[in-house]
Design a protein that fits this description.
single chain, about 650 residues, alpha/beta, TIM Barrel, 3 domains, 8-stranded parallel sheet, 4-stranded antiparallel sheet, 12 strands
Length: about 650
C-alpha cells in the first residue's frame, strides 16, 4: 500500500513539473507580447479646450497649440444640441417662446410655428446641417425642417427636450481638422441613439475616416444596442465591430467605468482593445489629488496596461499650470520605460487545448498531494481524477473560460497551503536554514503562480476584459486550511473529530469572546484590503507607497515584506507551538499575497517578478531586524527579571 502511495506521489510530482514547463511556455509567450507593447497615448479633452478658449476669449487652436507638443491626441465626445447652445453656437426655443421673441416682423408667419416642437437657431449653416443630419439619422421618430429666416438658420424638430439632450449630433469637424494639423490622434466617444442599423452605425463614425484614430469608445452607460433585445444586440455588436475594423480603430474601454455591453463587444474585437484611465473632474479640483496625478498615470500605464492617459485641466487656475501638469505626466510615464506615442496592438494570445490539459493536470496533482496531507487517503486520488476529467470535459464542450477560472482558483488555493504544510518545522531551525527554507517555501508557492499565468495567458485577461474571480476566497481559504491542519490534524495519533467535539463543547469566557471579536475585526480588515475594490488607504500609506515606488522602482506588497516574511522567519526559527497559530496565519497571508500578485494579468510579468523580489529581500531584512530586537529584549529581560519582579511587588 505504501509503495503504491509513493508511486502516486512520484507521478503527481512529475505531472506538476510537466505543468510547470507548460506554464513557463505560456509565460514566455505573454512576456514577448508585453515587451512589444510599452507605448501609451496622452490625450486632452476637446470639450475642455473649447470651454477654456471661450472663457479666455481666444481661439480653440491657441489653447490646443499650448498642449500639442506634450500630448499625442485629443478625446472628442460627440456633443448634443445643448452643448452647442452652451458654447454660444445655437439658441433653443419652444414654439410659444419663438412666436413671442423672434417672429415679430419675421418672414415666417406665426401660424407656421408648431407650439409643441423645438426650434434651434444657428448662425452657421454647417452647424445647422450637421444637427439636422444627426437627429434624423439617429432618432427613429425625428422630423426636421430647415428654414432660413432673418439672417439665421432655423431647424424645427418634433423631438422633446429630453430627446435632444441625449442624442449626439456628430463629431466636431474643427477638432478633427486641428488634430490633423498638429499631428495628433483622435480618441472618440459615440453617444447612444435608437435608430440602429449597420448603415447608421457606420455613418456615426464615418467622419473620422482619414484621421489617425487612437480608439473609438462610447459616452453613455451602455453601448448603443446593448440594452435592447438579444437579436438586436447581436446585430449591433457585429455592426460596431465591423465599423471599427473598417477604420482600423481599436475599441476603447474606460477603467472603472462599467458600460453595459462593453465586455461582450471587447470579446468580439479582442485583441484590438485599448484601455483608458482618467482622473475625474471632481478630483482635479483638489490640490492634494493633483499633486499625485503624474504618479497615478505612471502606475496606470506601466503596471495596469493602460494605453490612453486621459488628462483633464486643473480647474480655476492659469492655463500654464495645466500645461506644466501635462509635461510632468509625460515625464513620469516615460521615466518608467513607457514610450509616449502610437500604441502597438498585441498579437492574439490563447492557451492551446493541449497546454490547458497539462496545466489542469498539474493543478489536480497538487490537489492530490494536499488531499493526502488532510488524510483523504484513496479519496484524494479519486477526487483529483474526477476534477481532471471534469475540466477536460468542460474544455471539449467549449466552456474554456469556466475551466480557466475554476482551476486558477484551485491553483492559488492549493500551492500556498501546501508550501506551509510541507516546510513548517515542528522544531526550530538555525538562522541560515530558516532563511533557506523561506526561499524553498516561496518557490513552492510560486508553482501556483506559474500555473495561474499559464491558464490565464489570454488577451481577454491581459486587457482586463475578463478577470480572475475569487480573490477574497483565495486570500481566506489557505489561512483557514493551514490553521485547521495544525490545530486538528498535526497530531497523527489523536482523532480530529474528538478535537472538533472538544472545540464545540468549549466553555466560552468573556476574555475569549473579546479575543474572537478582535480576530474577526482583523479578518474583516484583511479581506477589505484585498481585491480590485479594496478599502481606501490613509494618506500616510499613500505616501509610503509612492516612496517605495520611487526608491525600489516597483513597490512590494505590505502584506509580504511587513507581515508575511517576518512571521515566516519567526515560525521557522522557533518551530511550531500551539500558541503560535496567529503568527502562522500571518505567515500564510504572506505566501497567499505572493501568489496573488500574479493574478493581476493586466500587469506585465516583469513588474510582478520585481514586486515579489523586492518583497522578499525587504521582508527578510525587516525579519532579521525584528528577530534581533526580540533577542535583545529577551536577553535584557532575563538579566533584569528579578529587578522587574521586585519593582512590581
Amino acid at each position: 500500500m505504501q509503495k503504491k502511495k509513493n508511486l502516486n506521489i512520484l507521478i503527481a510530482g512529475i505531472l506538476i513539473i510537466i505543468a510547470l514547463f507548460a506554464g513557463f511556455y505560456m509565460s514566455f509567450q505573454r512576456m514577448a507580447i508585453e515587451a512589444d507593447s510599452h507605448q501609451s497615448e496622452i490625450v486632452m479633452d476637446w470639450a475642455q479646450i473649447t470651454d477654456r478658449a471661450q472663457n479666455e476669449n481666444v481661439s480653440n487652436e491657441e489653447i490646443l497649440a499650448a498642449f500639442a507638443p506634450h500630448i499625442t491626441g485629443i478625446l472628442v465626445k460627440e456633443p448634443t444640441v445643448y452643448d452647442l447652445s452652451n458654447a454660444g453656437k445655437a439658441v433653443i426655443m419652444g414654439g410659444d417662446e419663438l412666436q413671442l421673441q423672434v417672429l415679430q416682423g419675421s418672414t415666417l408667419a406665426p401660424d407656421e410655428v408648431k407650439k409643441n416642437w423645438r426650434y434651434i437657431l444657428f448662425y452657421d449653416e454647417a452647424d445647422a446641417l450637421r444637427v439636422m443630419a444627426g437627429i434624423v439619422t439617429k432618432e427613429k421618430t425625428a422630423l426636421a425642417e430647415l428654414h432660413y429666416i432673418d439672417d439665421c438658420y432655423m431647424l424645427a424638430t418634433n423631438l422633446t427636450k429630453n430627446e435632444l439632450t441625449g442624442v449626439g449630433i456628430g463629431f466636431d469637424l474643427e477638432a478633427i481638422e486641428l488634430a490633423q494639423k498638429y499631428g495628433l490622434g483622435i480618441a472618440a466617444q459615440v453617444r447612444k441613439f435608437d435608430n440602429l442599423s449597420p448603415e447608421n452605425i457606420m455613418a456615426s463614425v464615418k467622419v473620422l475616416e482619414g484621421s489617425r484614430i487612437i480608439a473609438i469608445g462610447f459616452n453613455d452607460s451602455a453601448v448603443p444596442g446593448a440594452d435592447l433585445d438579444t437579436a438586436t444586440w447581436v446585430m449591433c455588436k457585429e455592426a460596431w465591430a465591423n465599423a471599427l475594423d473598417s477604420l482600423n480603430a481599436p475599441l476603447m474601454t474606460v477603467e472603472f467605468f462599467n458600460q453595459k455591453g462593453i465586455e461582450s463587444l471587447a470579446q468580439l474585437m479582442s485583441p484590438n482593445v485599448v484601455r483608458l484611465h482618467s482622473v475625474s473632474e471632481a478630483e482635479m479640483a483638489k490640490a492634494e489629488i493633483v499633486e499625485g496625478v503624474p504618479q497615478r498615470f505612471q502606475l496606470a500605464t506601466s503596471e495596469r496596461n493602460i494605453k490612453i492617459a486621459f488628462v483633464r485641466m486643473i480647474p480655476n487656475t492659469l492655463l500654464d499650470e495645466s500645461v506644466e501638469l501635462v509635461k510632468d505626466i509625460r515625464t513620469e510615464i516615460e521615466a518608467k520605460g513607457t514610450t509616449v506615442g502610437a500604441v502597438n496592438l498585441p498579437d492574439k494570445l490563447q492557451v492551446p487545448t493541449v497546454i490547458m490539459l497539462l496545466l489542469i493536470a498539474g493543478v489536480c496533482a497538487g490537489g492530490y498531494l494536499l488531499g493526502l496531507k488532510f488524510r483523504f487517503g484513496k479519496f484524494a486520488l479519486i477526487l483529483a481524477a474526477l476534477a481532471f476529467l471534469g475540466g477536460a470535459g468542460l474544455i471539449f464542450i467549449g466552456r474554456v473560460a469556466l475551466v480557466q477560472k475554476l482551476f486558477t482558483l484551485c491553483s492559488v488555493l492549493i500551492f500556498p497551503t501546501l508550501s506551509i504544510l510541507i516546510f513548517q518545522p515542528e522544531r526550530g531551525l538555525s538562522l541560515g536554514k530558516a532563511l533557506l527554507r523561506i526561499l524553498y517555501t516561496c518557490l513552492f508557492s510560486l508553482i501556483g503562480a506559474v500555473l495561474m499565468i499559464g491558464l490565464l495567458a489570454d488577451n481577454l485577461y491581459m486587457l482586463k476584459i475578463d478577470a480572475f474571480m475569487g480573490v477574497k476566497i483565495a486570500h481566506l481559504i489557505p489561512v483557514l486550511l493551514v490553521l485547521g491542519f495544525w490545530f486538528f490534524l498535526k497530531d497523527q495519533k489523536s482523532s480530529p473529530f474528538k478535537k472538533i467535539r472538544n472545540v464545540l463543547e468549549y466553555k466560552v469566557s468573556i476574555g475569549f469572546a473579546l479575543i474572537a471579536c478582535a480576530a474577526m475585526a482583523v479578518l474583516a480588515i484583511y479581506l477589505s484590503r484585498t481585491g480590485n475594490e479594496s478599502a481606501a488607504v490613509s494618506g500616510a500609506e499613500k505616501w509610503l507607497r509612492l516612496f517605495l515606488d520611487d526608491v525600489l522602482y516597483v513597490r512590494p506588497r505590505t502584506k509580504e515584506f511587513l507581515i508575511g516574511y517576518p512571521c515566516l522567519l519567526f515560525m521557522y526559527y522557533y518551530g511550531y507551538r500551539d500558541w503560535f497559530l496567529p503568527i502562522m496565519a500571518f505567515a500564510v497571508i504572506g505566501q497567499v499575497s505572493l501568489v496573488n500578485t500574479y493574478a493581476h494579468i493586466h500587469t506585465p510579468i516583469v513588474y510582478s517578478l520585481l514586486r515579489s523580489l523586492n518583497g522578499l529581500w525587504l521582508g527578510i531584512v525587516i525579519a532579521l531586524l525584528l528577530l534581533g530586537a526580540l533577542k535583545i529584549f529577551i536577553s535584557l529581560y532575563e538579566k533584569n527579571k528579578q529587578k522587574l519582579q521586585q519593582l512590581f511587588e
